[in-house]
Specification:
Mean pLDDT: 92
Number of domains: 1
Distance between the termini: 5 Å
CATH class: Mainly Beta
Largest sheet: 6 strands, antiparallel, barrel
Helix content: 10-25%
Low-confidence stretches: none
Number of strands: 6
Structural class: alpha+beta
CATH topology: Elongation Factor Tu (Ef-tu), domain 3
């Protein structure tokens, strides 16, 4: 396995009110490339495991198909938001690594 690496900038957004989940949506072009490299996932909700770096913080998570946008949504946990000073509505620079067979 080797990682495919994607770099992009996307706005952080909040789903579900103040106590809700925060996400970044992959640009459609990046989502298309991921879709071309990774076969449909049998995992929960069609998730794809990834490693993400925002600023100085790196973590393992999954991206989830976003039917409304035709892309993938990337959850950003509270620890990352606090460590990097991220708030909803602001852009984040992202490095996304996807393992490819």
């Amino acid at each position: 396995m080797s990682p495919a690496v994607f770099e992009f900038r996307a706005p952080l957004w909040l789903h579900g009110g103040q106590a809700g989940w925060h996400f970044l949506t992959l640009p459609v072009g990046v989502a298309d490339e991921v879709r071309d490299l990774v076969p449909p996932s049998p995992r929960g909700f069609g998730s794809i495991p990834v490693t993400v770096t925002v600023g100085r913080t790196t973590w393992n998570t999954s991206i989830f198909p976003a039917s409304a946008s035709g892309s993938y949504d990337l959850p950003v946990k509270k620890q990352v938001r606090e460590a990097e000073g991220l708030v909803a509505g602001e852009d984040a620079d992202v490095v996304l690594r996807v393992e490819v067979d």
